[in-house]
Amino acid sequence: MVGNMLYVNSLLLMGGIYALMCLGLNVQWGFTGLFNAGIAGFAAVGAYTYAILTTFASGMHIGG
After folding, report:
1. Residue 64 forms part of a structural domain
2. Does the residue 63 lie in any domain?
């Protein structure tokens, strides 16, 4: 049961993140007509940071 709740929790978290991103884009592009590439940049930086922080470190060092 615990594994199922972890899955549901992560699914709801990702759904909430995507919902907030969609609301932000709808306000800027839909209502005002302003194009802002900063939203995509912040999403890309956040995704990259999330990927770096959640992957396991390998024992192999590159360089140095």
Report:
1. no
2. no
pLDDT tens, per residue, the chain with 64 residues: 677 888 999 899 989 988 998 898 888 888 888 888 888 888 899 889 888 888 877 666 666 5
- Number of structural domains (the chain) is 1
Alpha helices in 1-64 (DSSP H): 2-25, 38-54
How is residue 12 written in tokens?
A: 């709801």
> For residue 31, what are its two tokens?
């209502």
Global model pTM greater than 0.85: no
Indicate the SS3 state at residue 34: coil
Cβ 36 vs Cβ 28: under 8 Å: yes
Q: Residue 41's domain spans which residues?
A: 2-54
